[in-house]
## 1
Amino acid sequence: MIEVINLHKSFDGKKILNGINATFKKGQTNLIIGQSGSGKTVFLKSLVGLFVPEEGQILYNNRNFLKMSDEQKKGIREEIGMLFQGSALFDSITVEENVRFPLDIFTKLSLADRRERANLCLKRVKLENVSHQLPSEVSGGMRKRVAIARAIALNPKYLFCDEPNSGLDPKTAIVIDELIKEITEEYDMTTIINTHDMSSVLGIGDNILFIYKGEKYWEGSKDDIFQSDNKILNEFIFASPLFRKVKDSLDRP
């Protein structure tokens, strides 16, 4: 579980995050949504230590990340898996070597054990047959799955995903969503997903945090979202044709 208490972050005197409180439970897919410029990316980067907030607490299973030494923070980071927007794979090494990379950096396992773990993770995302190919030789959806395999290589307690469906066709995006959901439950991880994809909200939104102008404006599940009377939230989600279509079907007698 990750608990955020009264988080504040500014840049050049401009307030970006203004007193955000949130609880992200393990075994759930926690989605962060909001307009561009709302502060959700700054929020995600603050959670993993890329930005340092001026005020507040970030508790990883009751351990205050912001009060830790660099060595203690390193220990937390070893418990974190990251899925980046552009997959962030190394083009010059094979798929297997990409997945093995965090094992090479953070563990003292033998090469044979690291390779075995990397290929086990590739098998989990149904990519065991492409281990010796380069990232450029596989499709965009497959590259996302390679990135997921790398993110779970260290058996993380926490998984952070930044726009995991960016650049994917709708069918492949659903595959990635379902895979993230399955792995979250299987590993009992605390998963936090920063997304613009309204299909993800409807498909895997166990808990949804809506950020507006640096503040938490609404929180609830994918089922709660249609019952909300939050005007700002409604204007945001019903700008999506998909949400309008679903709401129309729910409103029909």
## 2
Amino acid sequence: MIIAAALCPAPPALARELTGADPVMPELRHACRDAVAALVQAEPDLVAVVGAAEQTRAWDESLGLDLSGYAPGLVPPAAARTPGLPLPLGLGTRLLDEAGYTGRRALWSVSEDEPPSRCAELGAQIASSAGKVALIAMADGSARRGLKAPGYLDDRSIPFDAEVTRAVRDGDLDALLAVDPGLARELMAAGRPSWQVLAGSLHGTQPVTEIGYCDDPFGVAYLVATLAVERSARMTSDD
């Protein structure tokens, strides 16, 4: 059963190898660490990390973060021949390491082509994979929130991200499942599949949500939140 979840973005700037000593987006870094630390304090039997990638598949938790697509010079030639984890999963596992978590992990990438129903099914599968499951959903919002944004400005991005934030804040998970994949793709919102896996994992619960960060540096919407399932809600879900 699902007991807790954390929502974090996965920008490359969170990888120290790419920023060096420069504390890029320190508030975002701290919010992500705090969210995952709170999740670990719930003492789950298993933590699943979910993020968008080319394919929907499980990954070996022993693999490291693959930064070859962002800074090829940082990756030794031998290591480049053995691809590591996609960026969202690699950053999620690092957050777990920083939180001191040493328990069981499950890593899942989700293709942007997966329909909402399949994402929800994967979330439900993850939620039932252990007695007490926690989920980290690595998910960026739209990348078209300004003239200097990666996808330039699209006025639709503002209400789009505002509705996602409202849905997370209010625990309105059906609204996350209603996010249109086509619109998300047009707005370069890579987090859409992860949002919908999150919604599927928490189906039938009313999580208590705390927003730790909500901003759009560099024209990309980043949202950090913790979602806790109260014990009474978990017991009702089991009945």
